[in-house]
């Protein structure tokens, strides 16, 4: 198990959002490999289920925006998806990659030495979906290297009931009145708050409850015009980090986020695992 509260020792986890996806194809081997090369210890990936019940690593519910295919993944068999290739949703012309089964990506990241945040995107009934997730994690030897994440806190509660010991991360878009109570309701280990909803009281409440604090931020160009207008969120973010309020930064641009952590006077955490 890796430390989910590294802020206690002046460290921060650098997490690649869908890998290092800012200039490549998200949720693919090249994006994950590049994230590791640039200093990420952890990457976030997304799960979808095909019509014939295979879990694949892909963000959208439809194939149209980020692949050479079209239609709903949930209405497409894996054999058809296996023939497709990814495409960059921002129009960058680079070689397409396969849309891979979850188990293959798990094995690849295990061998890279990467831990993972696995975001469950689908809506489903019952526990069969979650049982398959847990089984594949254990078969790949990745059970202790993974955080299961979701916007659906019921999913987080249910997978922890199904697999005691698994660790989870809730995704939050809001300024919560009682962040720790929300975390406890789902028995989550980490809570992620996206920019710009992050606030110091959220982090303080979570840390007091022993819950890790993650923060997603857009790439730096998002902030350039705002800085020109006199609003410097990145300066504020560095003050939060120096105060020990953040355990993990998540970004599409791993190179930038690693440098940002170092320039804040902190150390990017390197997670070490035995293969």
UniProtKB/TrEMBL annotation:
Q: Name one GO biological process term.
A: lipid metabolic process
Which domain of life, per UniProt? Bacteria
* Protein name, UniProt field: GP-PDE domain-containing protein
Tell me where in this chain the GP-PDE domain is found.
12-275
In its UniProt entry, the species of origin is given as Rhizobium jaguaris
InterPro entries linked to this entry = GP_PDE_dom, PLC-like_Pdiesterase_TIM-brl
What keywords are annotated for this sequence in UniProt? Plasmid
User: Per its UniProt record, what PROSITE patterns does this chain match?
Assistant: GP_PDE
Q: Which SUPFAM superfamilies match?
A: PLC-like phosphodiesterases (SSF51695)
> Matching CDD domains, A to Z?
GDPD_AtGDE_like (cd08566)
